[in-house]
Amino acid sequence: MEEKGKILIIDDNEDVLFALNLLLEPYMEKIKVTTQPTRIKHFMETFQPDVILLDMNFCRDAISGQEGFDYLEEILSIDPKAIVIFMTAYSDTEKAVRAIKAGATDFISKPWEKEKLLATLFSAVKLSKSRKEVDRLQEQVTALRNDASLPELIGESPAMRQVKDTIFRLSDTDANILILGENGTGKDLVARMLKHFSPHATEAFVTIDLGSIPEQLFESELFGYEKGAFTDAHKSKPGRMEMASGGTLFLDEIGNLSLPMQAKLLTALEKRQIVRLGAVEPVHIDVRLICATNAQLPDKVHEGSFRQDLLYRINTIELHIPPLRERGEDIILLAQHFLDTYNRKYHKSITGLNREARNKLLKYAWPGNVRELQHILERAVILSENHILRPEDFLLPKQKGQARDFDDEELNLEKLERRAIERALRQSGGNYSLAAEMLGITRFALYRKIDKLNL
Ligand SMILES: Nc1ncnc2c1ncn2[C@@H]1O[C@H](COP(=O)(O)OP(=O)(O)OP(=O)(O)O)[C@@H](O)[C@H]1O
């Protein structure tokens, strides 16, 4: 079916306007007619026509067509992408050619042939709609690209070096990647890095946080909709998958997706096409998929709340981001990094953290990971009056599980020592010097104890 559009007709002859209105009414969405070309601007602003049908001569007996050219110029100065069709006298081919050169889209001759007139108008409406759609998509892509300022991924611990190596090794692939890690470990940042170092680096990067969109909006967000698909759909809108086409789609918190939505997502990924809500025709999509979750997806598969086939589709490569408590000195590197950031932001000049403050951060278990560290540093920078941050500048919540390693019942010294060493090694990310410092012994003494306890 041909697409209906809004047509503005400008002609000084009322009979022509009447006849055109009558003829076109069944085929068009809306029609406005006027004998006064001086009202062009008003109609363009209030009616926003898809196509303007413009007569060439307005003064009685005028034949030069110059007025038509003047009005065309005015229209294009208001909207350079306006679609204008000239109406010319039958024999005026020369003027018609001139009109196209001046920026008109097409012309029709008077008296018109109905079929030819309709065909010309339908293709003009189609052109207008696709121009508007392309404009909207381009705007969205530009906005998304500008948004992609990439912070540095800080970390030199073995676990983080491995993450960085994997990101670089994946730089020339298109494989679907599943990023796993606790909340706040940097999954979003890693997804952006993957895109930044991929063949799609300059294309769109579109994120959708499946944990935050209500179930009933899932389809319209992901697949888009056509005008009139539901009560509030006043105009058509592409979904996130369509916007990401040619680039990267980042599905955050994929573990939160309900089973019916998992089925819809899987179908779209398998068929590489989506159908907008209210549309009939499918749209081809070509996206590189990156997903992230803090959930144990294999457990969810086991209990029947996550589809095995969807897991296979999204986890071609799995990338594990370690919790902050296992990254040792990275905690200090990150603290220094956030200190610099917030010094700049709040115009402070705190130079660093003293030894006790560093130890306090190293011993804490960081359930909220890097995000929690970032907030703690921001608060410390704002509130501290010291030149160097001290332990009292960091108000760390008391942790429920903190005493578990040393529960009240346990008095056996060897067991206590073993647990303390194991915990220090875990928290230091396997760095012996740091673990020794945390335990308050020398590196040499630590080696001896590890040997004695057979750790
Ligand atoms: N290694 C890092 N270096 C620098 N900044 C980091 C690092 N890791 C995380 N951040 C910062 O910490 C904050 C939280 O990171 P991010 O949002 O990527 O975590 P996430 O794992 O996606 O969290 P969630 O699971 O809650 O979605 C962000 O401001 C991010 O820029």
TrEMBL record:
Looking up InterPro entries in the UniProt record yields: AAA+_ATPase (IPR003593), AAA_lid_NorR (IPR058031), CheY-like_superfamily (IPR011006), Homeodomain-like_sf (IPR009057), HTH_Fis (IPR002197), P-loop_NTPase (IPR027417), Sig_transdc_resp-reg_receiver (IPR001789), Sigma_54_int (IPR002078)
Q: What SUPFAM superfamilies does UniProt report for this protein, alphabetically? A: CheY-like, Homeodomain-like, P-loop containing nucleoside triphosphate hydrolases
Q: Which GO terms describe its molecular function?
A: ATP binding; sequence-specific DNA binding
4-aspartylphosphate occurs at which residues? D55
Asked if the keyword Metal-binding belongs to this entry, the reply reads no
Looking at the record, the residues that make up the Sigma-54 factor interaction domain are 153-382
Q: Which GO biological process entries does UniProt record here?
A: phosphorelay signal transduction system; regulation of DNA-templated transcription
Q: Which domain of life is it from?
A: Bacteria
The residues covered by the Response regulatory domain are 6-125
The UniProt entry, under PROSITE patterns, shows: RESPONSE_REGULATORY (PS50110), SIGMA54_INTERACT_2 (PS00676), SIGMA54_INTERACT_3 (PS00688), SIGMA54_INTERACT_4 (PS50045)
UniProt keyword terms in alphabetical order: ATP-binding, DNA-binding, Nucleotide-binding, Phosphoprotein, Transcription, Transcription regulation
Which is an annotated Pfam family here?
Sigma54_activat
PANTHER family the record matches: ALGINATE BIOSYNTHESIS TRANSCRIPTIONAL REGULATORY PROTEIN ALGB, TRANSCRIPTIONAL REGULATORY PROTEIN
What is this protein's name? Answer: Sigma-54 dependent transcriptional regulator
Q: State the species of origin.
A: Phocaeicola barnesiae
Task: Read off the lineage from the record.
Answer: Bacteria, Pseudomonadati, Bacteroidota, Bacteroidia, Bacteroidales
